[in-house]
Amino acid sequence: MSESTETRRPASRVLPHELPASLRDAGLANWVREPLDDAVDRRRRIIMPSAAAVMGTPASGYQGALLAEARHPDTVFMMGDNPALPVMPPRPTLADFFRLRFSKIARTHLLQSARVARENGLDEKVIMACLLHDIAIAGLLSANHGYWGAQMVAPYVDEEVAWSIEKHEALRYFPDESVGYTYPKAYIDYFGPDYSPPEYIRQEAKAARQHRWYMTSRLVTINDIYSFDPNVVVDYDDFEDVVGRNFRQPREGLGFDGSPVAHMWRTMIWPNNFL
Ligand SMILES: [Fe+2]
Ligand SMILES: [Fe+2]
User: Fold this and answer.
1) Separation of CA 106 and ligand 2 centre (Å)
2) Can you list the pairs that 171-180 forms with residues at least 24 positions away whose Cβ atoms lie under 8 Å?
3) Relative to the alpha carbon of 130, which ligand is closest?
4) What is the mean pLDDT of each run of 10 residues along the chain (275 residues)?
5) Cβ neighbour number for residue 219 with a 10 Å cutoff
6) What spacing in Å lies between the alpha carbon of 208 and ligand 2's midpoint?
7) Residues contacting 186, CB < 8 A, separation 6+
8) Dihedral angle at the C-alpha atoms of 56, 62, 64, 67, nearest 10 degrees?
């Protein structure tokens, strides 16, 4: 790399020579953030990746090295706003999470699913469930996403909406020919043709099928968009009316209303907090 290129690097990049070899060799530069050019606080910040994200990967072996790095006087662990993320307003709404936290692909997936549900003339409860069904994947955790997602939204939506979000996790693996739902082709790509859901998922799906709200959750799986169309752009604003009628936005903001799930929303506001 030429000298001139080197000097143009933004201060937010970690220069390779500034990292100890142990971290550099392990590819851990991602977890060390240099202060932005205009930052008042000139300390570098270490992001300790969550256990759930790195367990079973080589990255889990470097906690010690990251802890040691944080002991330097000019270095602290990331706490509070990560300058790499947009700042959230003091009283965040569902719209703020869609716009300022969720990735484009996750946001588009949720909006496309809700759009299809609306085009199919379905009840607003189903549209709302489709809009939220993978919210945990969008902002928190992928494994067990139906359960995490249902818990996150339960205080703010109709019980049937939360239930259908939870149960879509199990139901999506099992066809229901009577309503035209077949096993998603995408899952053959994702999990291989030999994948078989574990017993607890089978039991969950079996029980859900007997429930009076079965069809609400089944409709979530039917309107779930398994293939992403990058050319379809759906604006969150198109669903403000549905959200207004079906999501009880807390006055204090999501994350600050003292609800049993407020910590989940705070985790999405400050996802890189060490503790
Ligand atoms: Fe899902
Ligand atoms: Fe989905």
Assistant:
1) 9
2) 171/205, 171/208, 171/209, 171/217, 171/218, 171/220, 171/221, 172/221, 172/224, 173/197, 173/201, 173/205, 174/205, 176/209, 176/218, 179/215, 179/218, 179/222, 180/222
3) 2
4) 40 54 73 80 90 89 87 91 94 98 93 95 98 97 97 98 98 96 94 97 98 98 81 91 98 98 98 96
5) 23
6) 18
7) 226, 227
8) -110
